């Protein structure tokens, strides 16, 4: 990145907003040890994606790399997140997705390893209404769990194959790994993240106290 591009990125409102979001997420202890990654859509076939290996609580705007995709090919000048393929696939699957946030919280990681099935349905929590499309605590709120892999294009393909089950929930869990959420803008993605982390935390406590899945 040349000096002029770097200066432009310092003033990029998308990049500034994602850095602030990273500080907020890190303050909740949801992205330890460089875990997690974030992106925000900048046009139909492009997004800013966090650079790989950064402390996500200490991002500066030049750690947000422009990534574009066309006909399945990812193009980026630097080294974007190792999980860029999944971010890009989510944007391709749903035009209304404008931001994607991925976290590695203790609660999501432990919860994903306790649940043996491919889906867990939340019900009875008022907080479910913080999620787009959820109108009542009584409305079942499913969360799909994918098996972890280091092959990100394969995970992205799995998500695409199962998209009809996933999209209503605005989130997915990767077993032993972490949570992905998305939204129609960055604020909605943040709200979904906070709501899902809360719901997962509640379910984990319920399972711990009752011993029942
Ligand atoms: C701390 S290792 C975590 C990584 O393997 C990965 O899962 C992750 O979320 C962060 O990868 P990154 O390439 O920095 O975006
Ligand atoms: Zn991760």
TrEMBL record:
A Pfam short name: Aldolase_II
Protein keywords: Amino-acid biosynthesis, Lyase, Metal-binding, Methionine biosynthesis, Zinc
Pathway(s): Amino-acid biosynthesis; L-methionine biosynthesis via salvage pathway; L-methionine from S-methyl-5-thio-alpha-D-ribose 1-phosphate: step 2/6
InterPro entries, sorted: Aldolase_II/adducin_N, Aldolase_II/adducin_N_sf, MethylthioRu-1-P_deHdtase_MtnB
Residues that, per the record, bind Zn(2+): 102, 104
Reactions accelerated catalytically: 5-(methylsulfanyl)-D-ribulose 1-phosphate = 5-methylsulfanyl-2,3-dioxopentyl phosphate + H2O
Names of the cofactor(s): Zn(2+)
Domain of life per record: Bacteria
SUPFAM superfamilies: AraD/HMP-PK domain-like
E.C. code: 4.2.1.109
Enzyme category, top tier: lyase
One Gene Ontology molecular-function label: methylthioribulose 1-phosphate dehydratase activity
Cofactor notes: Binds 1 zinc ion per subunit.
Domain Class II aldolase/adducin N-terminal: start-end pairs: 16-204
Keyword presence, Amino-acid biosynthesis: yes
Family, per entry: Belongs to the aldolase class II family. MtnB subfamily.
PANTHER family for this protein: METHYLTHIORIBULOSE-1-PHOSPHATE DEHYDRATASE
Role played: Catalyzes the dehydration of methylthioribulose-1-phosphate (MTRu-1-P) into 2,3-diketo-5-methylthiopentyl-1-phosphate (DK-MTP-1-P).
UniProt cross-references to NCBIfam families, sorted A to Z: PRK09220.1, salvage_mtnB
Protein name, per record: Methylthioribulose-1-phosphate dehydratase
Organism, scientific name: Alkalimonas mucilaginosa
Lineage: Bacteria, Pseudomonadati, Pseudomonadota, Gammaproteobacteria, Alkalimonas
Encoding gene per record: mtnB
């Amino acid at each position: 990145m040349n000096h002029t591009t770097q200066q432009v990125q310092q003033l990029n409102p998308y990049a500034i907003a994602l850095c602030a979001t990273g500080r907020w997420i890190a303050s909740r202890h949801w992205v330890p040890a460089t875990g997690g990654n974030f992106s925000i859509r900048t046009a139909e076939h492009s997004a800013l994606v966090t650079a790989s290996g950064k402390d996500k609580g200490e991002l500066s705007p030049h750690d947000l790399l422009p990534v574009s995709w066309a006909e399945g090919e990812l193009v980026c000048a630097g080294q974007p997140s190792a999980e860029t393929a999944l971010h890009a696939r989510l944007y391709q699957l749903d035009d209304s997705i404008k931001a994607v946030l991925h976290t590695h919280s203790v609660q999501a990681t432990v919860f994903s390893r306790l649940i043996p099935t491919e889906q867990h349905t939340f019900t009875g929590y008022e907080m479910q209404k913080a999620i787009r499309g959820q109108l009542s605590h009584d409305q079942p709120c499913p969360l799909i769990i994918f098996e972890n892999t280091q092959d990100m294009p394969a995970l992205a393909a799995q998500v695409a194959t199962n998209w009809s089950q996933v999209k209503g929930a605005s989130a997915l869990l990767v077993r032993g790994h972490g949570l992905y959420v998305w939204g129609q803008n960055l604020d909605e993605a943040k709200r979904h993240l906070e709501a899902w982390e809360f719901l997962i935390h509640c379910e984990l406590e319920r399972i711990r106290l009752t011993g029942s899945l």
